[in-house]
């Protein structure tokens, strides 16, 4: 599938927008409304659900972008894994994974763009082994570069701008 640069960028931005609306808006609206109910167990459960859903911004955005690019299920899943890996939405502490909000939106976009390009590059090169190697390559290369290089760079830029 050939795609123009303008369509590529539009798909990335549109997918990020959809991810923001789906994962962040419910938390903003319901989080404020649930404060009215104080410590009611149902209100606390809704607040917790919407809070956790924020951490899935990268995954939902990647899903929307994969849909726009008409990726296969394998490619879509690989893109979602890479996006979450590079998002910065989690940290590790003493062997425990800690969800820490939605992650960095700029980094999510860069990681998804790189991983999408990698998927396009690998499209017809893996043959029957695509099921095994596509997730490995997209997660480790796209997600790895997103997490290890982009995330550090973007965070240092944001710190210096503040």
Concise account of the structure shown:
The chain has one domain. Helices cover 75% and strands 5% of the residues.
What is the molecular shape? globular
In the predicted model, the low-confidence regions spanning at least 5 consecutive residues are none
The count of domains is: 1
| Beta-strand percentage range | under 5%
Secondary-structure content class = mainly alpha
Number of continuous helical runs: 7
Largest sheet, strands/sense/barrel: 2 strands, antiparallel
Number of strands: 2
Write out the strand line-up for the largest beta sheet, numbering strands in chain order.
1-2
- Along the chain, the helix and strand elements come as HHHHHEEHH
Q: Give the termini separation.
A: 41 Å
Give the C-alpha Rg: 17 Å
Helix content: over 70%
Structure, explained:
The chain is mainly α. It has one domain (5-161). Helix content is 75%, strand content 5%. It contains 7 helices and 2 strands. Strands 1-2 form a two-stranded antiparallel ribbon. Strand 1 (90-93) and strand 2 (96-99) form a beta hairpin. The longest helix has 32 residues, at 130-161. It starts with a helix and ends with a helix.
Keywords:
PTS_EIIC; 162 residues; transport; mainly alpha; single chain; transmembrane; sugar transport; 2 strands; transmembrane helix
């Amino acid at each position: 599938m050939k795609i123009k640069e303008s369509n590529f960028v539009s798909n990335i931005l549109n997918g990020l927008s959809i991810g923001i609306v789906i994962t962040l808006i419910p938390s903003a609206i319901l989080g404020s409304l649930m404060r009215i109910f104080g410590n009611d167990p149902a209100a606390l459960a809704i607040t917790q659900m919407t809070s956790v859903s924020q951490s899935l911004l990268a995954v939902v955005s990647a899903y929307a972008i994969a849909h726009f690019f008409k990726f296969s299920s394998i490619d879509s899943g690989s893109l979602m894994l890479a996006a979450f890996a590079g998002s910065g939405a989690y940290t590790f502490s003493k062997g425990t994974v800690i969800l820490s909000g939605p992650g960095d939106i700029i980094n999510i976009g860069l990681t998804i763009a790189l991983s999408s390009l990698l998927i396009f590059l690998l499209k017809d090169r893996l043959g029957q082994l695509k099921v095994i190697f596509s997730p490995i390559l997209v997660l480790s290369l796209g997600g790895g570069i997103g997490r290890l290089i982009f995330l550090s760079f973007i965070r240092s830029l944001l710190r210096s701008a503040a």
